[in-house]
């Protein structure tokens, strides 16, 4: 079922109308501000395709609103369990559920473990981004069950997306979709990955991150290349197209892939050093920034953009998606197929 299927849309819309968001976000000292806009949460709940009578597990209670919406969707014949690591947030949600009659079981615990005592679940909804997807979550799904979670699609720190994963009767991924978007990172230690990061000492908001272990001087040189009289022009992927282009570039896995944040904002790009000369190019949601309009790196980035456009500017969910297992966790990745 797609997010635009009328029955799914109507069910989520009715739940949102029946449960005022302000009730959970609170005010003054009791406020819990949402990290995700309401329309995005509603879109993801439609993607999850929750139906009456289902058993649903939520990881990360937050303000408590999502679990209340889920309880409305499953009805009196279903069940919702929400797992929250913060005792304060869990107790706050318990009080709101009791006060307003929402049938939600609140568990204080580590979301990476989940709540196996309530398994199997038809759906697992994770409104945060773990360092990697725990196999626990897949094991706690019923055959044919669906997990919707924030994921990292690259080791680059800003490479966030949303994964919709269906499991088979062996609790293995049978179908994986990756969509644009993302959730804030989970309160959990992240696995050590080979990255090189540096910050401009004269502008602490200006940073660059390279994939792999490199001398910090290389990262600093590439950051300088983006600062030293760069060529700036409007982005060829305005508005919401930028995230799809960004993810397509990640999927294409070009050599020299990097992230940087400049005064023009965060972006993704390429960098290279040859003959003691540093060349870099970056695309943001507003600008295309290069050290020189005709540099070799600029040409490579422009060629990637042209390839994306020639392919019909594919959306993130149109790319090939897969999960790669590493011990007890799974890593989400996208490729060009």
TrEMBL record:
| Signal peptide feature range | none
- Give the EC number: 2.1.1.77
- Which compartment or compartments is the protein found in? Cytoplasm
What keywords are assigned to this protein? Cytoplasm, Methyltransferase, S-adenosyl-L-methionine, Transferase
Class in the EC hierarchy, top level:
transferase
Q: Which residues form a coiled coil?
A: none
Kindly indicate whether the keyword S-adenosyl-L-methionine belongs to this entry: yes
Q: Does the keyword Methyltransferase apply?
A: yes
Q: Give the CDD domains listed for this entry.
A: AdoMet_MTases
Family assignment from sequence similarity: Belongs to the methyltransferase superfamily. L-isoaspartyl/D-aspartyl protein methyltransferase family.
Q: Can you say what this protein is called?
A: Protein-L-isoaspartate O-methyltransferase
